[in-house]
C-alpha cells in the first residue's frame, strides 16, 4: 500500500524513519528490518559516495524511493539522488534533453519559418510545403519529443495523470492531425481548408516540444541549485588525515582509514578530520562552517573538536572518537537530506488539487474543442483543435507540485549553514506558530559544563569524604553535574570506589552502594522520598542557591552527610537570545531539576518570570501538556536524556547539539552550536519559508486559474484574444522555473 509521512504508524530504524499502513506491518518490520530493506539502502558515511548504494527519490513525491535512476511513477519527473555526490557529472537527463533540444532546434526553426512565411514567399505550392514540414517535424516528434510521449503513456497505464499526460495529448493531437491532413486531405470538410490546403500545425507541435525541452533544461539546472547546501557540506570534509603511529612517526592516510582511538595531528590551516578530543596543544578553531558562529573558538586539552572545522593557528593532537557516518558532519548531512525530502503539511492542499487537476484539464480541453467546433466562427473545428491544444499545454501541474518541496529544500540547506537543523518540513512550517518556549537550564541556558564549587559537611562528616563518596556514586551518571563532581574528586587525587546497584532517579538524583554503605545523592525531593531531613543544612543550601549554584544533598545510610554545590555559568549568548525571543512575543518558561531557589536566582538574572524548579522529566511532560491544553503552541528546548519526553511531546522540540543523542533524536530541530540564538534564526527562517511557500502556491494556482480560461478562448467574444499553443508552451515552462527561482531566493535572506 502507498503510505506517506502522515501515516499513523512510524518506526525509527538506524536513524531513519519508516512509515506503515497498519500496526501489523510495523510489527513485521520491527521483528526483522533487514528482510524488508534493500542492501542498497544501508546507511553510508556522508563523506563517501558509493554509487551502488545511492537511493533515488522524486522531488515532488518523497515517498517514491528506489536504488537506481528512473522516473517517478506518479508525476513522471526524473528521480534524483537523496544525497548528491560531489563527483557527479552533469545531470544525465539534463545532458539528454540538451542534446535533443540543440540537435532539433534548427529543424524547429525551419518548420516555424515555413509555417509563418512560406505562403508569402511562395517557395513551393502549399501541398508540397505540408510534406516538407512533415519531413522536418518527424525527427522532432519521434526523437526529441519521445520522452514526453513515453511518460505520457506511462501515466495513462499507471493511472497517474500528470504534466506529461497533457503535453503528450496536446502535441500528439496536433502532430497526428497534421499528418492525416497532409497524407489524406480529402477526409476533411472544406471548412478545414486554409490558403489552398487543409490547415496543418506541424510548427505548433515542433515548437511546443522544443520549448518544453528548454523549460525542462532550465528547471533541471534550477533544481540542481537546491542541493547546493548539501554539496557544500559534503565538500567540507578533508580527504586525508595525519595519523601519529605508535612509534611516534606520522603519515597521511585517507579519511576512510581513520579509526576510533587514532591519534591525529592537525597543523595550522588544516581541517579537523573527524570528531574527537584534544589531547595535546591549544589553538583557535573556526567552526563557522557548521555552526554559523563567526568567532573562532579556543580549544585546549580535554575540549571536543568537530570534524571539518578549521584549525586557524596552533598545532593540535586529537584522539578520534567518531568517524564515518557517526561524525557530526555526517549526521548533519543525513538530517538535512531527510528534511529536504519530507512533505510539508501545506502541500496537502496542493496534493488534493493536483489529484483532480489533470482530469479536469482534459475535460476542459474536450469541452473547448466541441464548444468552438459547434458554436465558434469559421474555421470552427480548426479553432477548436488549436484552443484545446493550448488548454492542454498551458495547464502545468508541475508548478503546483514543486511549490513547497523547492522551498523546503532551499530552507533546510540555508538553516544547516547557520547551525540550525530541521528534521522535517513540518518543523519548518510549525516553528513560526510557536508562542510559548519552555527551556531547560543546565546545558541550554547555561554552559552545560558546570564546575564543582564546594562541599558542606553535616555534623560527624568531613568535606573531603563527602566529595569522595558523592564522586564514587556519580561515576555511574551521565549528568553534567555528576561529571563536575567526579572531575573535582580526581583532580584532588581522591580514591574512588566502584558503585554497586546504581539507580538513576529520573531527574531527582541517584542511588547506590559504595563500600557497603547505602548512598543517595540528589535534590530535596529525593531526600523526602527516602525520609532524610535536610533541615540542619537548610540555611547553607539556600545561601548557595541564591548565588545561582545547584545544590545536591548526600545521604549515607539514611542520614544527611552534607551538601555539594556546583556552579554552571550562563552562556554569554543567552541574554541576547532571550531578549530577542521575548521581543518577538514569545512567553518564556524555565523548567529545571535544580532547587527552587537556584531556579529563581537564574531566572531573575535572565529576566525569566515563570520558573519551575525541582522538575522531574514527567513534570516537564505534564507542563508541556498543560500549556497545550491552554491553547499555547509550545516549543521545548533541552539537551539531556531527562528532556526527551517533553521534547517529543512539544509542538516543536529543540535540542542542543552539545547535548545527548537521545535529546536530538526526540527533537524536530537541533541547534548544532547549542546556542539559543539559533532559535531566533530558526523562527525567522520558518516565517520566510512559509511565506515563500504561500507565494509559490498562490502563483501556481493563479497561473492556472487565469491561463486555462484564456487558452480556452473565454475572452475571445469580448476582446478577440486567443492564446497560441506556442505561447502556452512558453508560459508552461516559465511557471515551473519561476516557482523554483522564487524558492532559491531563500538562499539570500538575512538571518
- For the report, how would you describe the main beta sheet? 7 strands, mixed
Which percent range describes the beta-strand content?
15-25%
Q: What is the number of E strands? A: 29
> What is the CA-based Rg, rounded?
33 Å
> Globular, elongated, flat, extended or rod-shaped: what is the shape?
elongated
Distance between the termini: 41 Å
* Helix content estimate: 40-55%
Structural class: alpha+beta
Structure description:
The chain has 27 helices and 29 strands. Mean pLDDT is 82; it is low at 38-52. With 751 residues, it is α+β, with helices and mostly antiparallel strands. Helix 13 (397-417) runs antiparallel to helix 25 (677-712) and helix 14 packs across helix 25.
Name the features:
751 residues, alpha+beta, seven-stranded mixed beta sheet
Summarize this entry quickly.
Helices cover 49% and strands 17% of the residues. With 751 residues, it is an alpha+beta fold.
What topology does this entry show?
Blueprint: E1 9-13, E2 16-20, H1 23-31, H2 33-36, E3 56-57, E4 65-66, E5 80-81, H3 92-121, H4 126-144, H5 146-157, H6 163-183, E6 193-194, E7 197-198, H7 202-225, H8 228-234, E8 240-244, E9 250-254, E10 263-266, E11 275-280, E12 283-286, H9 288-291, E13 297-299, E14 304-305, E15 310-311, E16 316-322, H10 328-340, H11 347-375, H12 380-394, H13 397-417, E17 420-422, H14 425-431, E18 436-439, H15 441-445, E19 451-457, H16 463-474, H17 480-491, E20 500-504, E21 509-514, E22 517-522, H18 524-530, H19 538-546, E23 550-556, E24 559-567, H20 574-583, E25 587-591, H21 596-606, E26 610-612, H22 617-629, E27 634-638, H23 644-649, E28 652-656, H24 661-666, E29 669-671, H25 677-712, H26 716-719, H27 725-744
Parallel strand pairs: 18-25, 18-27, 25-26, 27-28, 28-29
Antiparallel strand pairs: 1-2, 3-4, 3-5, 6-7, 8-9, 8-10, 10-16, 11-14, 11-16, 12-13, 12-15, 17-29, 19-24, 20-21, 21-22, 22-23, 23-24
Helix pairs in contact: 3-4, 3-7, 4-6, 4-7, 5-6, 6-7, 6-12, 7-27, 8-13, 10-13, 11-12, 11-13, 12-25, 12-27, 13-25, 13-27, 14-25, 16-17, 19-21, 20-25, 25-27
